[in-house]
Amino acid sequence: MRNAFAKVLTELARDDDKVLLYYADIGNRLFNPLKEFAADRAINAGIAEANMASMAAGSAMMGHKPFIYTITPFTTARNFEQIKIDIAYQNQPVVIVGTGSGLSYANLGPTHHSFEDIALMRSLPNMNIVCPADALELEILMPQIIELNQPCYFRIGKKNEPEVHPTRPDLKFGKAHIMQQGKQIAILATGTIMPLAQELQSALIEAGHSPELVSFHTVKPLDESYLQTSQDRFKHVITLEEHNERGGFGSAVLEYFNDQNSQVAVHRFGIPDRFIDQVHSPEDARTKAGLTLAAISERLKERGVL
Amino acid sequence: MKYKEIASQIRYTLCDVSSKTKTPHLGSCLSCVDILVSLYWEIMNIDPKAPDNPERDFFLLGKGHAASALYTALAYRGYFSIDSLYEHGQTNSQFEEHPGIHSPAGVETVSGSLGHALSLAAGMALSTRLQRKTNRFFTLLGDGELNEGTIWEAAMFAGGKRLNNLVAIVDFNKLQGTGESCEIMHLEPLEDKWRAFGWHTIRIDGHDINALISALSDIGKYDKPICIIADTVKGKGISFMENDNNWHYRIPKAEEVEDAKQELSV
């Protein structure tokens, strides 16, 4: 997904000389195509992410459209206060890109994992949150984020994420994308966990259900109009994310239904509230976190969904 | 009015506003008045009647708790009425205890959390250079603020990128919130530190307006940003406040404001 990011960024920067990239000394050759024609707009801010976030806000105040880019925990948690004050409070159109989000960098350990980032960003007024599921979703949504001209957190994966759409989807920022219509049960997933959501969809179909499958690429603003209509259509809503089960996308959905006094049963699947360590691969990490079809099915059985 | 008289008027108004609105940080405000007068009356390309002119110079207040000093300087410079300063810290006031997004035109950024302004200014200075514009950027940092790591991240970046449209002024009054700045952190030798980070650095008396104007006039002269270490006195101009750190938080009584007025001869 990071290759797709670099590709789209290069195209955007070619069309608009206000587009600017700050990166915190990562990416190696990733941004060479951008540097070929706009070396001065591909700025290595050094390994100084807090300064990078504030500088991007300063650049936005002078008319640029800045992206800040590094591995997710360092571009969201490390510099959170700079994002809060200089970007969110001042409402500056900076795109905060977290690459290798969730457990993408599994083997690098908890220092490189991020499953608190959506919770952090959700708590900031003015902040938008977009989590593409694959490179295609990224390509479609990224130009819309620039058009938005507001603070935005763009939570992306690392590399070789499976393609989740058989054809090019018509994605709109802020709108849930229904991949498969269904009834009784809805599976709402955000970000790179989508292949697991598709596995769950297949398993539910095999068990005789007709689940709806939805890509909730935009977590904030939450597509409340979709959730509003879903109250009457579904008995169970299952949320999936590679993020702490507390405070993330599933929590946002749960809060919405609670505030509506809805009878929908919400079943949240994400990373449990503990650090995931001593792992050698993302698959290994997801297994330890209970993010497998078997573990999810088991919990759904316990809850009487299956 | 001559600059010294303007500075005295500002100092008196700071005391009066603090007393009447019960807002603190008087000592921190008094130490940077002469710096603000040098900038707003002599150095900066600004026009109070056109505060949003895109070609203007920018002042970014790092030590946001000295907001009252900035508001008062702007009022005397003609951005808004002096009477409006007495709304400081009140409900729905534009003049919040720390500058916010509702601050009046002339206040360029939010401030209050230390260690942000130099980074913001570095980004603004870089973007200005990339767009071949001529704006210049002046930031005022507290000596306590230099405890923040982001100051040194920004200093390294600006020095590395040779941002010569950027000036950092350190209001070196030697006292931070709860003690002596040079005891709490190893600040000195401060000039050597900034030089080592790639800045043209000079040290002057921060209450000598001629020396300040001379140093600030050098912006753009070197192939690097400029740091001015301004030796100042916390509480400057009012003898019973000078170097007494209680005035970081204390509010003056009405009779103390009268004493200050007499001493300042306003």
Would you mind describing this structure in some detail?
The complex is a heterodimer of chains A (306) and B (266). Chain A has 306 residues and is of the alpha/beta class. Chain A is built from twelve helices and twelve strands. A seven-stranded mixed beta sheet of chain A has the order 2-1-3-4-6-5-10, sandwiched between helices. In chain A, strands 7-9-8-11-12 form a five-stranded mixed beta sheet, sandwiched between helices. In chain A, helix 1 packs parallel to helix 2 and helix 1 runs parallel beside helix 7. The radius of gyration of chain A is 19 Å and the shape is globular. The model of chain A has no long low-confidence stretch (mean pLDDT 97). Chain B is α/β, with parallel strands linked by helices. Chain B has one domain: Rossmann fold. Helices cover 38% and strands 12% of the residues of chain B. In chain B, the strands form two sheets. Chain B has a five-stranded parallel beta sheet with strand order 1-2-3-7-6, with helices on both faces. The longest helix of chain B is centred in the N-terminal third of the chain and has 19 residues. Chains A and B meet through helix 3 and helix 5 of A and helix 5 and helix 6 of B.
Distance between the termini of chain A: 34 Å
Major interchain interface with per-chain residue totals: A-B, 28 and 28 residues
> Widest sheet of chain B: strand order?
1-2-3-7-6
Named at the architecture level, the CATH assignment of chain B is 3-Layer(aba) Sandwich
Structural category of chain B: alpha/beta
Please give the CATH class of chain B: Alpha Beta
In the CATH hierarchy, the architecture of the largest domain in chain A is 3-Layer(aba) Sandwich
Number of strands of chain A: 12
Number of helices of chain A: 12
The pLDDT mean of chain B sits at: 97
How many strand units of chain B? Answer: 7
Mean pLDDT of chain A: 97
